[in-house]
Amino acid sequence: MSDSKSPEIKLPLAVAIGWGVGTIVPSIMFNVTNVFLVRFMTDFLGIAAVTAGIAVAASKVYDAVTDPVMGTISDRTRSRWGRQRPYLILGAVVSGAALVALFGVPSGLTGTSAAWYMLGALILYSTGYTIFNVPYLAMPAEMTENYHERSFLMSWRVVAINVAQVIGLILGPILLVKAGGARPGYAIVGWTMAGVIVLAGCLSFAMTSKAPRREVPAGPAPKFKDQIRTVGQNKPFLQLLGIKFFMLLANAFSFGAYAYFVQRVLEQSDTVLSYMFTTSTIAGLLAIPIWLRVSRKIGKPKALVAACSILALSAASWLLAGPGEPLIMILMRPLGTGIAAAGMLIVGQSMLPDTIEYDRRRTGLERAGIFAGFYTTAEKFAYALGPALTGLLLGSMGYVAGTRGAAIEQPDSAITAIYIAVGCVPPVCLLIACSILFFYKLDEEKLKSTVKET
User: Fold this and answer.
1) Tens digit of each residue's pLDDT (9 = 90 or more) over 324-336
2) Domains of the chain: which residue ranges?
3) For a surface tag, which of 135, 171, 418, 427 has the fewest beta carbons within 10 Å of its beta carbon?
4) What is the dihedral of CA 343, 344, 345, 351, to 10 degrees?
């Protein structure tokens, strides 16, 4: 696409919606595993909290290699469906199999044997996530060069994320409660969510058939080590990596500890979790048009700071919560979380294709996949550290694991650890993200003025 035509580019609505639908795949995977997985491992499989955290982190270590490699593979793929789209179906199928494996653990496995099994299932999970998400996130940089249309495209991603929350974080707890909350209930959740994400991946593939795309450039492909070196010269992209990492680390800590907080601190059932996520979902959907206007008016970096600030205040307010708190007060926090999350997703995600276009204008190279690969590597590290550090924090402060999901009496130190994970760590992470945002200067004017270096 030429620069002269980019302001007039208007994506067909069906294409924008179809791309957004694909978000259901990684969103359900992230939400279901971050909310339920560590507690499932500690309370039903008899895995110590520290061991559970280490297993999650270990499964992500190899992602530091696989994500950039997947980006390079997708950049070099030649097919009748384009460079990125074929991986939507393959990634969804592998991801579905991983969810079945994670929550359908054979009945005879507990303790150490269960820990080794879960490590293998987590590696399969990470592989499926990589196959799908890296090419998927590379697509917007090819679909449009319009600075603000990217925010519009990301708004459909937010819609899909909220749909995924309804399915994963509202339906999931309901299914779990209806099934009695035991291991077979987790298996039902795994199979149900697997079916949904395979369907979502296939729908996204079909609905993006008319999406604009870029073919593999003629001539020899750049060497992998050269691509890594020049990626490091894209300062806005490196800043975005840091911003995204700390935002996601805040979310990972919160999500990993919510299930503990509801049961062990608020002394409520998992049904309250579904109420919380319902509130967050509705708030996020209603906030979408507001964040689109705010982003246009004050710019993407300032809008992202505003979203992070709202989320930090919502997280810190959990420090004031306790047993017997009225439901209406409990739901005020996810109300703020939903509003903030919508802004962080719309604005933050639209900045990735901005940095990719900046690279294309500066170097003349077509390599959306490699940037998406490094971007998802930052995501994986955050997803790994969040549950891992949550498990380490709980274990170091005396959390008692079990095998039947019973409400084992916990020491005061373990309750304090849960408070720290939900109300202290996320605001600190978001403060760091805002500090990096202060130095981010890639706006629409700078992007349009960037020319190829000679």
Assistant:
1) 888 899 999 999 9
2) 12-209+232-449
3) 171
4) 110
